[in-house]
Amino acid sequence: MGRLSAGDTVPLAGARVVLHMLTAARQGPVDSVLSDASGRFRFRATADTSALLLTSSRYDGVEYFSRPARATAQRPDTSLVVLVADTSSSAPVSLAGRYLMIGRPEQGGRRGALDLIVLQNRSDLTRVARDSAAPVWTMPMPTGIEDFAPGESEFSAAAVGHRGDSLTISAPLSPGDRQLMVTYALPRGVKGVKVPFAAATDSVVLLLEEPTARVVTPGFAARDSQVIEARTYHRWVGSLPAAGSVEVRFLVPGAGGGEATLALAALLAAGLLAGGIVLVRRRSSGTRAAVARGTERDPASLIDALARLDTQYGGREAEVGVAAWSQYVAQRAELKAALGAALAARRSGR
Fold first, then answer.
1. How far is CA 130 from the centre of its chain?
2. Which end of the chain is more exposed for a tag (fewer CB within 10 A), N or C?
3. What order of strands is seen across the sheet that includes strand 221-228?
4. Is the full-model pTM beyond 0.85?
5. Are residues 206 and 97 in the same domain?
């Protein structure tokens, strides 16, 4: 049990640490202890290879969690760490990467969009709101979007909102990387969309279903295409050296008669789900080796992988079963670590 301070970790004594267990029959807290003078804590858990364990502690009004671990008698995990931090309303939070998928016009002429956002808090402080009426963090969104809805991510749906032309987050942002997924629709009849960015962003990926759609912002290039659910998406990759916008132009404005049936976000999520199934199967035994070899060091590829993985498994613990869920959690943690390392390497190489 430790507290982040001045770029280091100091032991935190007397903190209450809670043990949580996830099995097919039980999900929730099972025990709690206080950390000792050196910040250490110990739990005795019944060995159960199907159980997933994690610990948490509340500090300065914010809940912090460890990574997940297994309850096995042969290899008990003794390295669970809970790191807490002091809070500040001015802790720097940046947009490290963004993955935006835009579908073709549907029945009502609207285009569905799925937006994965990677946030990064590089400080030793947890970002909190300056007062009860203010959000913790905001980000500009395209003008005029409709049917905004939070997706499965590391924030509860209640903590994510859409006010004016901004996305808002009301949950604390602890040090490290966090992912957020939202869905929305672009209005019918638009000839293009400008996606605003409040600051420089290292990695931006756009998947455009319409073959005639183009990203016209300098610094973006077309890459490979991806076929998902028999629908082809064209991949554009780039970065923004400063605040600005990424502009997408559509050759044929969305048009159509009648009301949109709008399974738009659902269609996109289903497409990523299908892609995610293939990706998870491919990575199930080789993710660690691939990362170790350096074949997945590109932030855009890692953001892509996280989007697919979260769309497949997010919020489906009971449905997929404990074994699949624990595999998802482990793969997600590994991808997040690789993404953090890739972003850090890109920054240091500037």
1. 24
2. C
3. 146-150, 176-186, 111-121, 93-105, 201-208, 231-240, 221-228
4. no
5. yes
> How would residue 229 be classed by pLDDT, with cut points 50, 70 and 90?
low
3-state secondary structure of 142: coil
Residue range of the domain that includes 323: 275-348
Helix (H) or strand (E) segment spanning residue 297: none
The CATH number of residue 156's host domain is 2.60.40
* 182 plus 231 within the same structural domain: yes
Cα 147 to chain centroid, rounded: 20
**pLDDT tens-place string over residues 77-122:** 667 889 999 999 999 999 988 989 999 888 778 999 989 898 999 9
| Cα 191 from Cα 248, distance rounded (Å) | 9
Beta strand pairing status for 69-71 and 137-140? unpaired
Check whether residue 63 and residue 127 sit in a common domain: no
Q: Within this chain, do residues 172 and 299 fall inside the same structural domain, yes or no?
A: no
b/e map 126-145, b = 16+ CB within 10 Å: bbbbeeeeebbbebbbbeeb
**Is 111 found in the same domain as 63?**
no
Last residue in a domain, options 262, 287, 317: 262
Final residue in a domain of this structure, among 32, 59, 84: 84
pLDDT in tens, 288-302: 333 333 344 566 667
Residue carrying structure tokens 């793969």: 331
pLDDT digits (tens, 9 = 90+) for 175-196: 988 888 899 999 998 999 999 9
